[in-house]
Amino acid sequence: MEYILQPWPWYVSGPCIAIVMFLLLYFGRTFGMSSNLRTMCAMGGAGKRVAFFNYDWKSHKWNLIVVLGAIVGGFIAHFVLSDSTPMDLSEATIKDLTALGFKDAGQSLLPPELFSWDAVLSIKGLSILIIGGFLVGFGTRYAGGCTSGHAITGLSSLQLPSLIAVIGFFLGGLIMIHLIFPILF
Amino acid sequence: MGKYIKFFVVGIFFGIVLVKSEAVSWYRIFEMFKFQSFHMYGIIGTAVGTGVILLLISKQKKIQTTEGTTLRVPLKDRGFTRYILGGTIFGLGWALSGACPGPMYILIGTGAFSIIIVIAAALLGTFVYGLLKDKLPH
């Protein structure tokens, strides 16, 4: 039980994610989380105005059920299966974050400097969350997948388009952290 | 209803794994892009490694899905532009918000309700892609 309550090491977590992918393939579906964003747009009636959302979204309901499960799983992991061990971030990361103005790095899952209600109610904080989310939604659909669809499923099946997409993920991430963060914070 | 239970259970497992591995944490994504820890690379690396093996085995054993079809991964369309451009745009957002689509939902369960703003913006981003799709290079 002790091992379950502590943070899980990478060599346990990675194979578990592969099992999630495999189970969904075994059920005749596929592992792709960003597709749900399209499904939700279609559900909300976007198909009436934009052809891209005019498809049989009901056949993707199973994936929304995965999302509901994931939310419940997040609740269970955080409130039941946790002993509140702080994250074991590297010293260098904590130092860099402190220099950028992020205090107590790793004491919670998300930095209060961006996700606390105080931060959210500031123009800068709100803009960061909105721009970040917008880029994720736009980029994943443009690339046809996110971490689950391209990095896990696509690479596991040795598909070149997914490798190109993952290179893009890192290109974008590196630009953001190394070039844009020093301007933002 | 019954046919959906297995998806619900897989979702719960997925949510637990991503929280317990700390892959849902903004801090871990920052650390990954700074190359300051092996943690995230270990997760993605072992996930892909295990995935390759599972898919090879299922191909060799010709495993059938519960739907009675042959187990196979849907193929991505060929191309370059959409993958590199879309991927880069996603990467910018991933590093800024610290969340890709899976963790976004999972974080709601951990009580981080401000993530709903990120999800709403992601829905808007997806909608705008749908609007502009035919005008973008793919």
TrEMBL record, chain A:
Q: Which residues form a coiled coil?
A: none
Alphabetical keyword list? Cell inner membrane, Cell membrane, Membrane, Transmembrane, Transmembrane helix, Transport
Which range is the signal sequence, renumbered to this chain?
A: none
Membrane topology term: Multi-pass membrane protein
* Record's subcellular location: Cell inner membrane
Its GO CC terms are: plasma membrane
Keyword tRNA processing included in the entry's annotation: no
TM segments? 12-28, 62-81, 119-139, 160-184
Pfam families tied to this protein? Sulf_transp
- Family annotation (InterPro entries): Sulf_transp_TsuA/YedE
Q: What's the family?
A: Belongs to the TsuA/YedE (TC 9.B.102) family.
Name by which UniProt lists this protein: Uncharacterized protein
From TrEMBL, chain B:
- What's the protein name? Uncharacterized protein
Tell me which species this is from: Winogradskyella thalassocola
- Keyword set for this entry? Membrane, Transmembrane, Transmembrane helix
In Pfam terms, one family for this protein is DUF6691
Q: Which domain of life is it from?
A: Bacteria
Question: Where would you find the membrane-spanning parts of this chain?
Answer: 39-58, 79-99, 105-132
